Fold this protein.
Amino acid sequence: MTYTPTLRQAIGEVRRNLESIGVTRQSPRLREHGDHTPEPDAPLVLVACSGGRDSLALASVAATVCGTLGVRCGAVIVDHALIAGSANVAAEAAERCRGFGMEPVVVRRVVVRPTGAGTEADARSVRYQALIDAAKAHGAATVLLAHTRDDQAETVLLGLLRTVGLDALAGMPASITRDGVLFSRPFLALTRAQTTEICESRGITWWDDPTNGDLADEGGLSTDLPLRSRIRQALLPYLVHLTDADTVGHLARSAQFAQRDKDYLDSQADRLYRRSVTFNDDDGKTRDAGRSGHWLARIDARELAGQHPAMRSRVIARTLAACGAGTSSRHVDAIDALVADWHGQGAVRLSSSHSAFRQGHVILVCHDRVHENR
């Protein structure tokens, strides 16, 4: 088989990604020609595959790389059942993955229940849970995600429109652990045009998700599409035209630098978090919480008071997330004022029926349904 420059780059990216997480060649004999069938106990790499061009390109390349390393390679296809014919799309994606020699190939059909966060967010949540369940069931070393440089640029713009601060600029990290499962993104240096080229060069046909907006009517882009799709089809092309430059590459590179800075801040904030935050392990009941005796987390205001605002805000945001309270910059700032500008102000009302108030030298984060007579 002839390897194009793009295919060689993709193979190199996947190989380096796997090496960075400890998945390497299993035996010196694999350098030689001959049978490279993985041993039954070899590490398993799973690829999250939707049937689209990006994930099929990654599945094909990952199968090739894992074959040279003596590593098992499988795929997980999540059927969200949100559009007509989704079961057929999942079945066709599974068949293509089997054609790459991948094993196991798992199809998980999920139910996306509305939570108020939006269909896109709800689907992402159940998709990750399905991937986590499959990875744990099969003992996978990692799950590879097919996000590209274009996806990274879109994520940065999405973050800037929806949130504030450094985290918005950082986009998607190259790897992340969720519920004990390592997810990794080896294609962040590749463009969507390159994944298309890989599929075409290997004769792989793919499915285009209509919610991505790729099949928009000539009359214009529908506002019913998710915001990410509108960024992809309208905002990002406009910015490229406006600047007459590689805007996608610029945003992706900026995300790399921002991610590096974010990693450092997070590591420093983690130490402060462990020193200053205590969680209730008694179903919200304790004898030393004061007036009501019900709380979820307790933040030591004295420990935080002398810290840099960047550290305080990270500790507060992480605490709220751990308590299941929705986090916004406004909420974080209001609780930070309880730490750094305390003058007797009342409780901070949070989303999801949570609140936070200062009591002496601590800030208590509570769930209002179990916090009585405050």
